[in-house]
C-alpha cells in the first residue's frame, strides 16, 4: 500500500473520522474513498490535494515527517526494492555533498 494512503488512514484513525464523514468533508464519493484507501484504486493528485485540504495537512504533515521511527520502518518495509535502492542512493549523494 502506498505510504501516503497509510498516512491518511492513520490520520483518520487518530482523529476518529469515518469514511462517511470524510466523504462529506471532501465531496468525494464514499465508495471511491474506500477503494482508494484500501489500496484497490490509485489515488489521483487531485484527490490527494482534496484530502490534504479537508484534513488540514500541510506539506510537512503530508510527507509524514512527524512519524515515529517505528512508523518510518513500517512504511520502509512496504516499499518496493527498486524504490528503496533509489532512496538510499539519494541519501548517499546528499551525505557526500554535506561532507
Beta fraction of the residues?
A: under 5%
Largest beta-sheet characterization = none
**What is the rounded distance between the termini?**
35 Å
Helix content: over 70%
User: What is the CATH fold-level name of the largest domain?
Assistant: 434 Repressor (Amino-terminal Domain)
InterPro entries: Cro/C1-type_HTH, Lambda_DNA-bd_dom_sf
Pfam families: HTH_26
Domain HTH cro/C1-type: 8-57
Protein name: HTH cro/C1-type domain-containing protein
Could you please describe the fold and organization of this structure?
It holds the Pfam family HTH_26. GO terms for molecular function: DNA binding. This is HTH cro/C1-type domain-containing protein. Residues 8-57 form the HTH cro/C1-type domain. The chain has seven helices and no strands. The chain has 99 residues and is mostly helical. It has two domains: 1-66, 434 Repressor (Amino-terminal Domain) (Orthogonal Bundle); 68-99. The N and C termini lie far apart (35 Å).
Amino acid at each position: 500500500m502506498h505510504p501516503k494512503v497509510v498516512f491518511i488512514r492513520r490520520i483518520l484513525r487518530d482523529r476518529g473520522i469515518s469514511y462517511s464523514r470524510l466523504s462529506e468533508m471532501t465531496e468525494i464519493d464514499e465508495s471511491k474513498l474506500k477503494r482508494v484507501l484500501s489500496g484497490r484504486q490509485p489515488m489521483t493528485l487531485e484527490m490527494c490535494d482534496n484530502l490534504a485540504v479537508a484534513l488540514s495537512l500541510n506539506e510537512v504533515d503530508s510527507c509524514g515527517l512527524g512519524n515515529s521511527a517505528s512508523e518510518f520502518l513500517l512504511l520502509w518495509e512496504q516499499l518496493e526494492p527498486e524504490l528503496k535502492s533509489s532512496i538510499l542512493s539519494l541519501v548517499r549523494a546528499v551525505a557526500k555533498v554535506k561532507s
